[in-house]
Design brief:
Blueprint (H helix, E strand, L loop, with lengths): L6 H20 L5 H19 L6 H19 L4 H16 L14 H27 L13 E4 L8 E4 L2 E6 L9 E8 L2 E6 L11
Parallel strand pairs: 3-5
Antiparallel strand pairs: 1-2, 1-4, 2-3, 4-5
Helix pairs in contact: 1-2, 1-5, 3-4, 3-5, 4-5
Length: 209
């Protein structure tokens, strides 16, 4: 357990725990990531308490400023100076999070703080920008316009099947069996599945003799 007396090790536990916690919130699943994050953060917190690792309050403030600048840089991607300033603040705050042997020496290995801050910062900046771009991109088509649209059954349809509507292939279901090749009309959309019905083809009128 002497390893937990090392501020750099404790910093890694907390940093990795926070990173995994953010990933768990962004992509909730079985709870496995949540347990790992909780275990790492708990271990880091216990180490700070048991071994009485002194924390620099000003370093926590610098980390907070860095986090705020990081959020601003995500919203304003063209202002590279803001992103650089946020990374510098996070690196400095991380390195001096724990008190070193003297007031001017960092308690956390600065190279470790640099690598963790740059890699994690770049990763989350990229993910956040992609999420913002995806959210602001208009859909290729108005999904509401699918209701009432007509198409063609590409397979036999009942409890499941597929139809070609508005230039795309969709999963489909119907209350009554529909044969392959039949013309169909969309009644409603249930997620990525369309509920359809058969379009009654007009029957040819008998010609008068």
């Amino acid at each position: 357990m002497d390893l937990l007396q090392n501020p750099t090790v404790v910093y890694l536990l907390i940093a990795v725990g926070l990173i995994i916690a953010v990933l768990a919130v962004a992509a909730p699943g079985t709870g496995f990531l949540e347990l790992i994050a909780l275990a790492l953060l708990f271990t880091g917190g216990v180490a700070i308490f048991v071994y009485e690792l002194p924390i620099n309050a000003w370093a926590l403030l610098v980390l907070l400023v860095g986090a705020i600048l990081f959020v601003i840089s995500i919203r304003r991607p063209r202002q590279i100076a803001v992103l650089v300033a946020s990374i510098v603040a996070i690196v400095v705050g991380s390195a001096y999070l724990f008190q070193g042997p003297t007031w001017w020496m960092p308690g956390v290995n600065p190279y470790v703080a640099l690598v963790v801050s740059v890699l994690s910062g770049g990763f989350f900046w990229f993910l956040a920008r992609k999420a913002i771009e995806a959210g602001s991109t208009p859909p290729h088509q108005d999904l509401r316009a699918l209701i009432g649209a007509s198409g063609e059954a590409k397979t036999d349809i009942h409890q499941e099947g597929s139809v070609y509507v508005s230039g795309e292939l969709w999963s489909a279901r119907s209350d009554h069996p529909i044969p392959t090749g039949a013309r169909v009309r969309v009644l409603e959309r249930e997620g990525f599945t369309l509920k359809v019905e058969t379009i009654e083809e007009p029957q040819n009128q008998p010609t008068a003799e």
